[in-house]
Amino acid sequence: MCLYPRHALTNAPSKLTRDFYARSTLIVARQLIGMHLVHRLGGLRHVGRILETEAYLGPKDLAAHSARGKTSRNAVMFGPPGHAYVYLIYGFWNCVNVVTREAGVPQAVLLRALEPVEGIDDKTWGPGLLCRAMHIDRTLNGVDLRGQRLWIERPPEPQSRQRIARSTRVGVDYSGEWAQRLWRFFAVDSPCVSTASAAARRRALLDRVDFGVK
Known about the structure:
Elements: H1 18-21, H2 25-31, E1 36-41, E2 44-57, E3 84-89, E4 93-99, E5 107-118, H3 127-134, E6 150-153, E7 164-167, E8 184-187, H4 198-210
Antiparallel strand pairs: 1-2, 1-6, 2-5, 2-8, 3-4, 4-5, 7-8
């Protein structure tokens, strides 16, 4: 598990507005870094700080699920914005995406990694691990991110300035030239991103012990 020193959450957070999502997918993908993903399940809250995203700009983007048109699987991508698009890969892993742009433009942002904040006791680096740790599955496909089950909110406390980098997306070599787009965004200094080394994660665990957090 990727661990950081925990900080007290004091101020009331605010959910992201519909207008936040109904914008350029690349802008949304970058600005989601640092926001909190929240899943309320059975009276418990599971919360993680978003550290890594990927933008998918269908239908022209051949790496996007919407590249071949609208299907029963990808229908949520076609809008309206501010909804969750959850799908299964490899017959096992769930992945959660945030639908962007106006209705009819099938674009979305994949959430790839989180920093545990509350109610998370599992690994969170990589989209499948993220969903497992957050208990997100396909029953949440199409859910309104302005609702009471799954949403994204601004952190309750001001965050220190973070360095955000961009790179090519992961695992989309099949899409030809689209695989070269620098549409993956991530917090540079975080050991929780999906491409961080095991050594970096071990150092984060040691830092957590040094801070007296167990």
